[in-house]
Amino acid sequence: MSVSVTAVLPRRSQARPAPVDVTERRTRRRIYITYGLVYLNSLTFYSGMSVLHIPSVVGKGIQQGVLPLAILMAFSLNRRVLIRPNVFLCLVSLLTLGTFLTAMQPQHFGTVFRTFRFTEFVVVLWLLTPWWGRRDMLLVRCHLAALSAVIASVILGLIVSPHRARPAVVEGRLAGVIWPIQPTQVAHYAAVMVGMVVVLWFCGYLRGRTAALIVVAPMAVLLLTHTRTALAALITGILIAGMSLITAEARVRKLFATAGAVAAVTVMTLSAVIVTWLERGQNAQGLENLTGRTKVWGPLLAAPRDRFQEIFGFGLSNVSFDGLPIDSNWLASYQEEGLFGVVVCAMILVFMLVMAYFQPRGVQRALALFLVAYCVVASFTEVGFTDVSPYLLDLFVAASLMVPSAQSVSPA
Prior knowledge:
By secondary structure, the protein is mainly α. It has one domain (20-79, 87-248, 282-401). Helices cover 68% and strands 2% of the residues. The chain contains 18 helices and four strands. The protein has helices spanning 2-15, 19-42, 56-77, 87-103, 112-127, 138-160, 162-165, 183-202, 208-225, 228-243, 250-269, 271-279, 284-288, 293-302, 307-312, 329-357, 363-378, 390-401, and strands spanning 176-177, 180-181, 320-321, 324-325. The strands form two sheets. The protein has a two-stranded antiparallel sheet with strand order 1-2. Strands 3-4 form a two-stranded antiparallel sheet. The longest helix has 29 residues, at 329-357. Residues 1-14 have low confidence and may be disordered.
């Protein structure tokens, strides 16, 4: 009897997971939850779009309420408040300081809430920096998980209520109707997911069939949104990321050669279909003024400003001018944060591109290049990273990839 017990006991002790493994799994789970909460906070809630008939107060309350939860989760992960010094978040923090200067002006006091929200958002990002540089690219996994959840909700909405998900009032462009999301934002999530999966396949982190199965759904979503900016940014990002790998990865060279041949044949045979898709039923005037965007940009630049407003802007707002969306990161920066904000945004992108240039060739560099290139292209016709937004999280993930690889840390 004693012999059999002694024989079994070692096996049981070996079957038990090591304390380090248990702690690591718990940490990863909490990081996923924290990042998911931050991503939910970055989504914009549009009342009247959801099939669930979520009241505006409830929807915005959920969106804003998850940020304090994210802060608590981040502090529970990083109890000693250890941070990894980096230029990217220092520049983003400069933006928050600029918004505080504006919010202290009596005539701009209404921007205080948005300023504190932006600051809390950046604090959570700082608290997650100890997990930068992991070999398993944990934050990339979190980013892909958040994108997958958003796209799954869009597809579910299309199944549940196809007429509402593709309303005729916006030329049948696909929108999110479970959590209300505009077509341009849906396209952003789909395009970023497609690009990241393609880059992971470039570097051999995903098999061809697996990557193809993952890409099918978000690519279909992207095409159904009829969003030209996201498609152009996706192609540009993949090209730049692929060029950084073209001398080292044979599959990249084969893909580019095949894609070039397919593109040439497609343009010659389906040019009419492509032009119709790109026009989205618009006339030449609509294409020239970028779907009405330039009608807002001109008056915005001509609006009177004093010296302080020219330098620091009018403070954070709902990114609109005279009730119309601005739809440009650079003009939104000028309106809300002045020339100071425009300069800081330019410094962020230049720094990211320079850092990527000096990184060793590999999956981290390629992913970072894709995300930065995507944000650069999208910033001209989409609101970007001067406030709480998914674009800022794209750049955050890119910055996390451009640091030396390190073992996981335990700041708690």
